[in-house]
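fold-stage: in
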Amino acid sequence: MHFGFGFKSSTLLIFFIHGLIFTLLLVYKGIRNEHKSSFWLAAFIFLCSMYIAPFMLGYAGWYAKDPYRDILFFIPFQQLFLLPPLLYFYIKSSLNPSFTFQRKDWLHFVPTILYGIYSLIIWITDTIVLDEYYFYAIERDKDLALWYQIAGFIMMVFYLFASLKLYAQYKKKTYETVSFADSILYVWMERFLIAFLGLLLIRILFFILNPEWANFGNKYWYYLAFSILFYYIALSGYIHSIKINLPYLPKLISTESVDFLAEAEAQNEPVKTSEKVAIQITEEDKALQKQLEHFMVSEKLFTNPNLTLFDVASKLNTHPKKVSNIINKGFKMNFNDFVNAYRTEEVIKKVTSNENTSKTLLGIALDSGFNSKSTFNRAFKKQTQQTPKEYFSQKN
């Protein structure tokens, strides 16, 4: 098989092969552990590998030789209408393990189906009916046509924003329902989405400032950057698929939490934050607020590193939504910050009173309910506007 090993073709070949390997690994993980999100990511990574294939093979000399040129022409390697919804459903299934694909979700794939029919018509006409180039008379790959590239670009930007919106909603709900939010937020996912969006915006900027950049040979650096990005999400997603199987990780989505969030969404009333709630506290609210403070202090609920809103609501014998509103209105913070405030206060109390002198600061933080050093540092600085080191150095 002809393949010209140059710098450009070889570097893209490395990412292409790794993409196929990660595809197989993710499919295996999906089958073995019954993770829907792994299948979505496997499909996305596979299509990312196919996306760089025309340029990898083009730099290797395929567009200049038969029958390799026909392979590039008639196989739609760049599925620009399919990549965006696959990414969107991967994000959705990762953030919501109870997500199931509905019949209405097929609407997201209508452009892909239409482009598939279009590609099939071209192949049948040029290879079977006419047995000569008709659609490909100009000998330019249809996947690289300007209208298709622009339409795919618009779709990708749209779905990236939709994915970022999903992540923002997940992040908000997480901070409102668990006290260990920092340890379960998929920060890599947000970074990837923002980086991907930035890459697309840089692409359109280059095209506007330098129209010649649209020429085949001038796009290498864009496709190299794209390869690095999809390799990053493949690696991060695969590591995540391993981590979520470890027994010590807390479960965010319980049956009760799903019912609670579903009820809020059904009423079109998301879990409210302090900025959106008027400060109107009833006598019943005040009584519940005092009861909440009593349990937090007397029983030190905050020392449980896996404490959730549903645990507290069960302790108070009330609905989680009620507790959430009390914390939002009465304390003007979300549940995560509310619990971490008690944990921070407990750390300060133990250190300043010389308790647990045999333990390190991290040991005291873990005893107070924090589950990691990074979470402790972030929460401590948020509560005191100083790092632990700065705060205690100043006190000493």
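fold-stage: in (second)
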Amino acid sequence: MSVARSMDPDQIGFDPARLARIDEHFGRYVDDGRLSGWQVVVTRRGEVAHSSTYGLRDRESGAPVEADTLWRIYSMTKPVTSVAAMMLWEEGRFELTDEISRWLPEFADLRVYSKGSTLKPYTVPAVEPIRVWHLLTHTAGLTYGFLQTSVVDGLYRAAGYDLYPPADVDLATASATFGELPLLFQPGTAWGYSVATDVLGRLVEVISGQSLDAFFADRIFNPLGMTDTRWWVEGDETERLAALYVPDPRSGRAVRYDSLGSLAFRKPALLSGGGGLISSAADYHRFTSLLLRGGELDGVRLLGPRTVRLMTRNHLPGGQDLGTLSTGGFAETTLDGIGFGLGFAVVDDPIPSRLPSSVGEYYWGGVASTAFWVDPAEEITALLFTQLMPSSTYPLRSQLRQLVYAALVD
């Protein structure tokens, strides 16, 4: 399945010549070697206005990016896990204010880092339990080992949790370990990008009684026809997966990164709700279309429209933005003027970021430079796929926003 343009762009408010600038601009990244290849899809009012590919999915073999190329989407898994959790919420299985220790007892007696080193940390008791909404908003006090910005990050790495978990550790074991480690801050008092969505995935497992991969398949992927989205690739499908790259520190050219990229060729022990999926443009286009349409697509409803609206409002304490509440670690977003909902960054004020966007737009991205956004005000969805780590290497996302909104002329 692929994403083909379904309507002349000028019929839905886009200038075709201006949309062509997308290919011209990002083509230069491939031509000078900074990227191996990419794929872009832009829609409006449910119609595909622009769909293009350029370059190679595997530079070394010469295989081109094609419409059905598979991409490691990493943290673009997080919105899928958030949707899964909110499907259970709609069934009355939990309330957003519930303490997660009700299902995950490892989070019952939490400690919060106060001072000291990784060898001798000093902690204090948590004054507030982690609640479900804390997981959805990254305000739980959890962190990531790969951030390398705090003592608590160091404790995660010492426990074996860096960019990837220890080999053969499953989601239940990882969640138990996270519950034993100190929190970075008191729950609900700050924002820190973290393993919170992995813990949320474990919560989905315990509440539903299914493994996360089974829940995703039965409740999301199969009903939506997302036939390409999976946790690993094998057999003939391995040829469709784009290779993973990092920038050479001297030349800036993309260099193959098989030591990490090859992990996609075997079933993971840990089903990471925070970063484990592989997908295609066509599949993720169906997912963003579902969101834009308020939780329904082609007669299949996963969420009610009011639930989607609830998820895509700013839930940060006091309506503050990430610039105020962020602990300063890595995030797949700018911070000023940006709030956070139940699984998505949310634009509260587009001016501080100096980027064209609409109030209420929501989005996220992945560490290999993939990205998406949904703009309900303009009825736009946009998708960007490539495989370059880290996502902070080039301003691909902000540049795509510039080019898309500059082409919108109605």
